Structure formats: C-alpha cells, structure tokens
Amino acid sequence: MGAFDLVAFDVDGTLVQGPDGLNVWELLNRRFLGTSEVNRQRYALYLEGKLSYAEWVALDIEGWRDAGARRDDLVREFAALRLTHGTRETLAELQRRGLRLVVISGTLDLMLKTLYPDHPFEEIHANHIGFDDAGTISHWRATPFDMDGKAQALRGIAMREGIRLERTAFVGDSANDVWIASTAGFTVAWNPRSDDLERLAGAVVRGENLQAILPHLVGDRD
Hints:
Blueprint: E1 6-9, E2 16-17, H1 24-32, H2 37-47, H3 53-66, H4 71-77, E3 82-83, H5 87-96, E4 100-108, H6 109-115, E5 123-131, E6 137-141, H7 149-161, E7 168-172, H8 178-181, E8 186-190, H9 195-200, E9 203-205, H10 214-218
Parallel strand pairs: 1-4, 1-7, 4-5, 7-8, 8-9
Antiparallel strand pairs: 2-3, 5-6
C-alpha cells in the first residue's frame, strides 16, 4: 500500500507551461488589455487587502469581455500554452496505482479542459467563465479555493471522502500554494518560484519532465 490516497495538483506552472513563464491570466491580460503588468499590480492590492479575490477575477474577465474577447478568442490564445512534458504519463501512472487525482487551482477551468480534454481528474476546483449562444462572456464564478482557500478545499475533499490528511499530497510551484502545502500530508514543490513553498515542501523537484515527481508519490514513506 502506497503512502497516499489522493494527490491534488496546481495547474499554471505545474501541469501547464506558458510562453516566457506567463500563466493563463497574464497571457490573456497581455493579449486583451495590452499588458500583463496589471497582474502584479492587482496581486499587490490583494495582498494589501484593498482588493478581494473575487474582485480581482472580475477585473480581469470584465476587461477581456470589454475588449471584445469571445470564447473562441480565449481558446485561440490557449494555443500558446502546453502541458508540462510528462504530464499525461505521470497522471496515468498515479491513476494506475489507484490514487485519486484532483485539481485545486486559481487557473481557468476552460483552459485546462481545452488543453487536456481527456484529463483523469475526479474534481476540478478552478475559476469558471460562462458564455452566451454567441460565445460572448456572460458570467463568471471566482473559485473560493485559491490562495488560503486551497487548503480549505483539500480539507473538505478529504473529510467528504474519508481520507486522512496525512494520506494526501499536493504538487505546486508558487506562493499561492503555501497554504495548501501547510495542510497536505506531503508536498512536492515543482520548479518552485516561492521560497516559502520550497521551505514547506517535503520534496523539491526541478526539471522539464513531470515524471520526476513520481518517486516521491508512489512509494512507501517512512
């Protein structure tokens, strides 16, 4: 019996890579707002408590809508993104060994479903955009499960499914993963961009192929 029953994944920077290291929000803001600098500005406002997470999401998506972005336009931009090398093989091996897989991420669910329509995840907790029949952005739903909410999501899934937290693992890369890394039984920091996440992680893995994380997730641990 392996050490874990469930593995939760971040998406941007972990399962998906963007040009010049951009995440999906930065990519779309650069395309439809003309700059990705607003991401840093709005993140700073969020950290200062001057902008809620839902307000931050709304500012971005409203900006795309007001710039005329439709569903097909968003999907077209996703072509600049790619799955991290080895993602399919890694998830297939975890699934083959009976681990349950979920996404807990601040990404867009549309992007993940576009790049990985045959994904093996039982649940995807991410931001959602809705469209009308003409493909115009009509509504959106900010996930409550980003930043500190990631930990809340993991605890909720584990409780609902009867899985002890020590038998959960998380794989992520950035500062918004720190809270869930403090909650999961074990965390793999994949090419981490956060010193705090790196300090909390049980394993730090750097490389190009996600299969490098497998030895930390599929074997028994002392």
